[in-house]
Amino acid sequence: MQTKPQTGTAKTDMGMRRFGAVNWLGTWTLALREVLRFMNVWSQTIMGPLVNAALFLLIFTIAIGPTRGDVMGVPFVVFLAPGILTMTVIQNAFANTSSSIASAKVGGNIVDTLMPPLSALELLVGYIAGAVARGVIVAVAITLGAVLFIGMPLTYPIWAITFVLLGSILMGALGMVAAVFANKFDQLSAISNFLVTPLAFLSGTFYSIEALPPFLQTLCHWNPFFYIIDGVRFGTLGVSDSSPWLGLGVVLIWSGVVLVIVWNWLRTGYRMKP
Q1: By C-alpha distance, which of 182, 172, 181, 202 is closest to 83?
Q2: Which of 131, 182, 190, 232 could link 86 by a cystine bridge, Cβ 3.0 to 4.6 Å?
Q3: In angstroms, rounded to a whole number, what is the distance separating the alpha carbons of residues 140 and 156?
Q4: What is the pLDDT of residues 141-165, one digit of tens each?
Q5: To 10 degrees, what angle do helices 48-63 and 76-107 make?
């Protein structure tokens, strides 16, 4: 007795991945969604931060620039530019992931993110890629403006690019942490206003930490934002308050720890499942 040949697709057991070890298409689609999400409202997500950065430079130039001497051997306005650039980058990277996840949670459609066949690592990569893309776009735009209008140098561009990328990764991951804990936009705003903003200001954005009392200097050295801003300043101006290698190590450790925490939360669905 002859058996009929089987036709159609082979049956796949439940729970087995159909995309190989990595779902490249799904990860790319998530990253693209995150990029298109902020590009669709570019006037708020890109143009707004650029205008804020320009206003910071303009106000400090008019109010303090003429009377303030050089800082670390460079004019005050030029010293200020890398700090404002980095602060804008990290704030935007944080906002990209935090607003995306928080909006999905508040809107009740977080299931659209959790149900697709994406592993925890793929979800993490997709979200972080969107944050990095937004941070890099903002960084490039501000850098071009600073080079053209105030003559900001690019002494070690590789260092500047490295810290912009690492800062975007770290802040994108921290944005995911904030969004996981926040159940309302008010809670997310509180985390940003009372944690991210103070740490950004207490990191040498507008000054050299050498001007601070010893206690605050020690506090700054525990602040990862300080090393991100200091690393970008070293990459652009060639001067810094600490070694860029030390900053690289600190930011890598912080980034690794936060990324592992977020990956584990995505794997277990901690505070994300409806």
Answers
A1: 202
A2: 232
A3: 15
A4: 999 999 998 899 999 999 999 999 9
A5: 150
